[in-house]
Amino acid sequence: xxxxxxxxxxxxxxxxxxxxxxxxxxxxxxxxxxxxxxxxxxxxxxxxxxxxxxxxxxxxxxxxxxxxxxxxxxxxxxxxxxxxxxxxxxxxxxxxxxxxxxxxxxxxxxxxxxxxxxxxxxxxxxxxxxxxxxxxxxxxxxxxxxxxxxxxxxxxxxxxxxxxxxxxxxxxxxxxxxxxxxxxxxxxxxxx
Length: 192
Hints:
Layout: H1 7-18, H2 30-34, H3 45-53, H4 57-61, H5 65-68, H6 74-78, H7 85-98, H8 107-123, H9 128-143, H10 146-149, H11 156-161, H12 176-191
């Protein structure tokens, strides 16, 4: 038997993390009208907010729209009621990971983001080769498709020859403890 959190507590958590009141949204649609990614989304930003208002958090978090958002903040700046729509969408990304309801089409996006963040966590900065290797392994283990694992292999040499791929690995930052504290603080904030 799974323990479920009451809808009003889930909404309150999203509002706390996003620093906004979703009840203030009256569905004018300005957020959706201004979104540069709306054509790629399966659900409009205003619909995401409506789903949260209704307490249908998991449905909102399982859309591709939350991962299509590029965090440009256009939706939030256009809102006449100052609802932080981009903030809500960021929280919905976290919810989709917590509830393991990431849309199947987005699993590789999540694998890339995890690989990127893990590289920064380990080194304090990106390490392209390490990040790509981890991403390819995650992606392969996620769908066992060797063709997708090798998909971009032909780009390596041309990128290297143009100076766009750095084989030499930069030294990790000196204060890795600071980077780990930043990660810990972010994780602590999300769990509240």
